[in-house]
Design goal:
Layout lengths: L2 H21 L3 H25 L25 H16 L1 H20 L5 H33 L10
Helix pairs in contact: 1-2, 1-3, 1-4, 2-3, 2-5, 3-4, 3-5, 4-5
Length: 161
């Protein structure tokens, strides 16, 4: 295994560390952001079963070991996880979000470079993951706004006669 294949998996560890750091500040939202990553991954597995695209490493040499037959290429699970994590982290903390976005692009690119995915696999994976996490972030923000409005004190003014 090359540093690229190890690096792709290490990026997932970076995302986990960021979620852990954000946990202390945004407990429930960080947990739900992580849950969004799991939902995005589950959706990508369903898409893989429907599309069933062979990996490029089946027909051309690759740097990384080619996964077993039946482990389909489209969309890239690493990219889905990276895109979902980056978007969830972005929704919680902008500075970490920039770091996560760079890590997500690096992780996705490495999957193409080592020869286990096509470019469209990783682009679709990044988009799918980011869209699922973004949708969850929007729902959480709406819920939080409703709760803030509901918790607002009621002011009663005397009527002028």
């Amino acid at each position: 295994m090359t540093w690229l294949t190890v690096g792709t998996d290490a990026v997932l560890g970076v995302f986990a560390l960021m979620f852990l750091l954000l946990w202390f500040q945004h407990r429930l939202r960080a947990f739900l952001g992580g849950a969004g990553v799991v939902v995005a991954y589950a959706i990508s597995e369903v898409v893989k079963l429907v599309v069933q695209e062979e990996r490029p490493c089946r027909t051309a040499p690759s740097i990384a070991e080619c996964p077993e037959p039946g482990d389909w290429s489209f969309p890239s699970n690493h990219s889905v996880i990276a895109g979902a994590s980056a978007m969830a982290i972005w929704a919680l903390h902008r500075t970490y979000g920039w770091v996560a976005a760079v890590c997500a692009i690096a992780a996705a690119s490495s999957r193409v470079i080592v020869g286990v995915h096509y470019v469209h696999d990783v682009l679709a994976g990044l988009a799918l993951g980011a869209l699922v996490s973004w949708g969850i972030a929007v729902l959480l923000d709406r819920r939080r706004q409703r709760r803030v409005v509901a918790d607002a004190p009621t002011v009663v003014m005397q009527r002028l006669r």
